[in-house]
Amino acid sequence: MSNDAATAANATRTTLTTPPVDSPETEPPVFGLGASLPPADARAKTEGTFPYAADLWAEGLLWAAVLRSPHPHARIVSIDTSAAAEMPGVRTVVTHEDVPGDGAYGRRVVDRPVFASELVRHHGEPIAAVAADHPDTARLAAAAIVVEYEILEPVTDPEKAFEAEPLHPDGNLIRHIPLRYGDPDIAGEVVVEGLYRIGRQDPAPIGAEAGLAVPRPDGGVEIYTASTDPHTDRDLAAACFGLEPDRVKIVVTGVPGATGDREDPGFQLPLGLLALRTGCPVKLAATREESFLGHAHRHPTLLRYRHHADSEGRLVKVEAQILLDAGAYADASSESLAAAVAFACGPYVVPHAFIEGWAVRTNNPPSGHVRGEGAMQVCAAYEGQMDKLATKLGIEPAELRLRNSLSTGDILPTGQTVTCPAPVAELLRAVRDFPLPTLPKDSPEDDWLLPGGPEGAGEPGAVRRGVGYALGMVHMLGAEGADEVSTATVKVHDGVATVICAAVETGQGFSTLARQVVQETLGIEEVHVASVDTDQPPAGPATHGRHTWVSAGAVERAAKMVRTQLLQPLAHKFGMSTELLQIANGKITSYDGVLSTTVTEAMDGKELWATAQCRPHPTEPLDESGQGDAFVGLAFCAVRAVVDVDIELGSIRVVEMAVAQDVGRVLNPSQLATRIEAGITQGIGTALTENLRTARGLIRHPDLTGYALPTALDAPDIRIVKLVEERDVVAPFGAKPASAVPVVTSPAAVAAAVRAATGRPINRLPIRPQAAVAAVNS
């Protein structure tokens, strides 16, 4: 579920039950860090005037349409574009023959063609594109292209990919990580095993992909689209167009929410090729079906687990096999697998761990980056195992987790020491001790409380309530040696500050945070954040909370440099150091009160500016035994789910989600609550309804009718019971990104609650109704 959709669905149902700061009550700041500064674009978005990519227009523009494969696996015998090219209003048709070079691209691995040439490897793979003077003409022309296919047997079971004929010249195995930690021969007194399956979730953005490509006089092209990593998109596009990078410009338009789906440049590349070929602006607005077929999804995952524990419930060893279905191309599968293997044991102390992880190619739809990738899948599995251990040992599920919880100074199975704050036990106690919601009354006026809604067919006597717990963890920033750097410029003139940074606002709140950082540092209330394009220095992708750390960190460093430029003349004039001057509420004062002036007066009409970079400490790839300091930092979350289950019908209603999270530092209370709320709601969709189903590689019902997103009626009460503010000393501001870890943790908590209500194992997400029907209806 998209972040914007989740926020809208649950906007009035979140309750912050404890203040985020454990300190004496003070008047909250009006602006700067710690203030609930509203987003600058909030009014435009609520009024419907915010400019999204689908709203773009240019004089003389043409419309594009893409022909996609109806088969998941086929050999292309021939492509006949003559009928399409001869249609009135059609300006050009492009295929693989019109792509310079080898015609392949990829963010991590260059393995994906712009247009399929010899083989089709997944349902919906682009074959050709058309530019015409009307969108209907473009679609009709695309449909008129005749492609002769030789249908091939698709490989859709990832377990069979190991023995199947290679689907790609690079083979079917993308990556294998064997993690070895401790003694392989040790065993516990109690052993539980489990097999878990996680389905394919779609990011389901509010707005489908759209963009506009405009040719330039120098033979280059400008692409206006909702990119989340514009500089990488520019470089990929330039390589595919046969141009130097400086002749391709990506201009970021309004992003209608992004949880990974905006990262696929395969939508932008046909658009740019058509503009270069016709010499005219070309616009492409995808339908919802094309959106489902085109962008990447969460990796479907098969997980086999064996947990060993002693008689007191303390973990001794964890063994696991993790198989990620990457679909047709590599994309982010290597990174997702690294996260899955590294976090396969969860936020628990495990002295011995042996994990085998694989990511393989199939003829299923491509998988890629979706919030919490890798970590979400293993969380559902290891928490299922913890519930099995608790049942077998007769220990309360929360107590079992407390006995094994990770803390600062412990060592991960990758051999990396946890140096950041890790208040896992504190988070779990907070949700465990929070009062449970009252039980619904068995009366006609309360029928709406039944699973299934007001018109549900269930009977109150068949409803059972369950309570479940889950602990989750994610890594922040990139991993395994990724160069996480961002650059920002801060300019001040006439009492107004401007931030120039290529960090894309995807709904995560970077633009608001950048304004708050400058307000805090310079005491200037009016701060503007410039729009993003590739003429600016790169800031990297909008993933893993990067922009809260590296981009906001770069903004802070640039603002501090401007602060020094501003204060140095005053300090020199009064014979003191700049450290003895402070800026607050637009005023500059000295420690002794001798100096007091406004920022505007001190500027005296000058323009000050500075550019700075932020780069966190380096990491390293996991070695051949899965060992290495691969992560910059970690974030943790505890969730308690309360559900009502109709054990006859299998319908499920999430009553309440209590969440406690370590956030490092609260930078914007209302924005933080919204991020947590959105993550929890997205996780509920993953747990109960969201499953992009395929049949022999074909996507079934690629629309929002067949793909069930949670609505406002599905959103429960979300109780944020504790926010632990233990600052991470290596992070700018000490803050931790907040949105991914609730997505990771909440599906496992819902599954645990359904287990408690039904007594069923619940080893598959999303939970199917038949799995929630109790074996004994009593």
Write structural notes for this entry.
With 778 residues, the protein is α+β, with helices and mostly antiparallel strands. The chain has 16 helices and 32 strands. The strands form eight sheets. Strands 4-8-2-15-12-13-14 form a seven-stranded mixed β-sheet. A six-stranded mixed β-sheet has the order 10-18-17-16-11-32. Helix 5 crosses helix 6 (268-278), helix 8 (333-342) runs parallel beside helix 9 (375-393) and helix 12 (510-522) packs parallel to helix 13 (546-574). The longest helix is centred in the last third of the chain and has 29 residues, at 546-574. The protein is globular, with a radius of gyration of 27 Å. The two termini are 35 Å apart. The relative contact order is 0.15.
Give a brief description.
By secondary structure, the protein is an alpha+beta fold. The protein is 24% helix and 26% strand.
Mean of residue pLDDT values: 90
What gyration radius follows from the Cα positions, in whole Å? 27 Å
Q: What is the helical fraction, as a range of percent?
A: 10-25%
Strand content: 25-35%
Instruction: Enumerate how many helices there are, as a single number.
Output: 16
How many angstroms separate the termini?
A: 35 Å
Unreliable residue runs = 1-24
- Quick one: biggest sheet? 7 strands, mixed
Question: How many strands in all?
Answer: 32
Shape summary: globular
- Write out the strand line-up for the largest beta sheet, numbering strands in chain order: 4-8-2-15-12-13-14
Helix/strand-derived class?
Answer: alpha+beta
